[in-house]
Write a sequence for this structure.
């Protein structure tokens, strides 16, 4: 199982770099993963998407649909792609500590 | 180093190849290996089905593929082109003879892997494998991949989908620029136009994708139209060449792009949505059969008749009797001296007389009908579209009323449809009445079951006064 080290702590990840254990997610993990996804600095807009995804996952145990994500955060899909260049599924969910989405987002 | 190959038990064709180290460390490959071993597969080479045979070969590490050299500088580095296996092409040569321009000649002039096509002809089945989308950072849609079932000839090919300008008009200058990009990065081959109506550049190696896409956007074109979004729309040539058109199809499509470009490039719908714009009910773009949302030009007053022109046409030998007898509404009558008469109450506005007789032209009360749910594939197979709005004025420059309605209908589809459900399947599942209710459209007699006899039914004068039915 591949592992990555973020701020001194080892984390288990799957082959695409998603965290194996979402419960261990915290804000420093998101900061550590951001550079991998081509994001230089996490702004307040980034955090809004990341926190929404994380809270949704804690509540329902799955990733939300794209439609729901853009409706609740108020960003349209173009803005989300600007914030996370690899897209909502690969980029945003990885930073929010979700397991790899199965196609809903 | 030990290599583990999964081969066809009959012909020995290698399906997958792993190293022992990969299987121990990469869980994805291990999972795939176990899955392939457990199931019965069909060999792409000899079509025999059955369990795969496993062979283990020990290879010296030195003979394995050399480690990738680090790219020195992305600016100075020469652009990589994949090297394909070459060989004799007897069947393609046979296709190159004759009078008609041959695709085999064109393919052989480029870097297209000719052996793939030659082998396809010899074995009577395609040698290409599955296809899919490629994720490129910052690009949400427009890049596709086609894998190869013959990795010894070519490893597969990426291609980008470029949205065409309205009317498929390309200036020679922009075409030269596109050709330069195709020569520099791709096979040097333009697929013009694909069945979806877009221009495709085939055979771009993965490392060249980003610069290629950047250059395409720099010369003013845009890529998109893959995945669950609006696909590239198609329109008939309209006012640029045709005199029967009932609204400006080119202008409407331009306005459509201006308004919905984000939805073309960023996939967010349950499934793809195809839009087609036809200038008149002749429907040259086949929108009624193929488009999820189809905007058809319609008119609702009587056809205009220029009696002089009709008389001249009849005098020159025009067969007016046949036209009158074959009129679907049986509403045309011709009398020598009286001229041609139309009974507007039974006119279906089907364009038959306008197509046949030079002096008959569509009326002046023109607009657009919106039809939904046509498709050829999907869960429940081919369907013809149904009329959602029988008549609506299309007003340039921004066509606000038409596009507002379109946006509302797509919103209904987006909110209620299941994942990977086309509009036609969605309407079949919930019922057309429920769909009308969700869209807020009142059913009127002008939307009947059959498209060609459908919205062309006549309008009473009081209905025409009540302009907005939505």
């Amino acid at each position: 199982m591949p592992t990555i080290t973020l701020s001194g702590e080892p984390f288990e990840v799957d082959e695409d770099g998603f965290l194996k254990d979402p419960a261990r997610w915290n804000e420093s993990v998101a900061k550590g993963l951001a550079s991998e996804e081509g994001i230089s600095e996490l702004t307040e807009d980034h955090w809004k998407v990341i926190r929404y995804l994380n809270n949704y996952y804690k509540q329902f145990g799955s990733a939300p649909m794209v439609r729901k994500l853009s409706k609740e955060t108020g960003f349209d899909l173009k803005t989300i792609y600007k914030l996370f260049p690899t897209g909502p599924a690969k980029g945003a969910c990885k930073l929010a500590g979700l397991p790899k989405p199965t196609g809903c987002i | 180093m030990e290599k583990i190959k999964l081969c066809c038990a009959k012909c020995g064709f290698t399906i997958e190849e792993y190293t022992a180290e990969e299987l121990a460390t990469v869980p994805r490959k291990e999972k795939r290996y176990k899955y392939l071993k457990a199931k019965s597969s069909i060999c792409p080479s000899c079509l025999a089905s059955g369990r795969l045979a496993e062979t283990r070969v020990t290879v010296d590490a030195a003979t394995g593929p050399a480690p990738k050299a680090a790219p020195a500088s992305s600016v100075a580095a020469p652009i990589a082109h994949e090297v394909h296996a070459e060989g004799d092409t007897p069947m393609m040569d046979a296709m190159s003879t004759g009078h008609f321009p041959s695709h085999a000649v064109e393919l052989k002039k480029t870097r297209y892997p000719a052996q793939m096509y030659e082998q396809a002809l010899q074995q009577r089945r395609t040698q290409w494998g599955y296809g899919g989308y490629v994720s490129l950072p910052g690009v949400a849609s427009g890049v596709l991949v086609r894998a190869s079932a013959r990795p010894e000839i070519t490893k597969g090919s990426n291609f980008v989908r470029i949205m065409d300008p309205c009317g498929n008009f390309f200036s020679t200058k922009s075409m030269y620029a596109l050709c330069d990009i195709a020569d520099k990065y791709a096979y040097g081959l333009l697929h013009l136009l694909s069945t979806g109506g877009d221009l495709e550049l085939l055979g771009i190696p993965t490392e060249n994708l980003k610069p290629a896409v950047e250059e395409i956007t720099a010369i003013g074109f845009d890529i998109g139209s893959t995945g669950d979004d609006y696909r590239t729309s198609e329109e008939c040539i309209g006012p640029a060449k045709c005199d029967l058109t009932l609204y400006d199809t080119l202008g409407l499509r331009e306005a459509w792009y201006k308004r919905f470009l984000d939805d073309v490039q960023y996939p967010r719908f349950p499934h793809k949505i195809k839009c087609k714009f036809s200038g008149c009910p002749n429907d040259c773009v086949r929108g009624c059969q193929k488009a999820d949302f189809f905007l058809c030009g319609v008119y609702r007053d009587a056809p205009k008749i220029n009696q002089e022109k009709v008389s001249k046409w009849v005098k020159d030998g025009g067969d007016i009797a046949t036209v009158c007898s074959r009129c679907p509404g049986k509403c045309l009558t011709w009398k020598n001296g009286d001229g041609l008469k139309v009974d507007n109450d039974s006119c279906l506005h089907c364009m038959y007389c306008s197509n046949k007789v030079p002096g008959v032209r569509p009326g002046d009360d023109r607009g657009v009908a919106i039809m939904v749910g046509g498709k050829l594939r999907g869960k429940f197979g081919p369907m013809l579209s149904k009329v959602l709005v029988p008549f609506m004025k299309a007003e340039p420059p921004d066509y606000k009323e038409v596009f507002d309605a379109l946006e509302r209908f797509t919103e209904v589809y987006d909110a209620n449809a299941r994942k990977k459900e086309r509009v036609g399947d969605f309407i079949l599942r919930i019922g057309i009445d429920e769909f009308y209710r969700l869209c807020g459209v009142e059913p009127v007699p002008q939307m009947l079951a059959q498209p060609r006899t459908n919205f062309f039914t006549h309008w009473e004068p009081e209905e025409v006064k009540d302009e907005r039915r939505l």
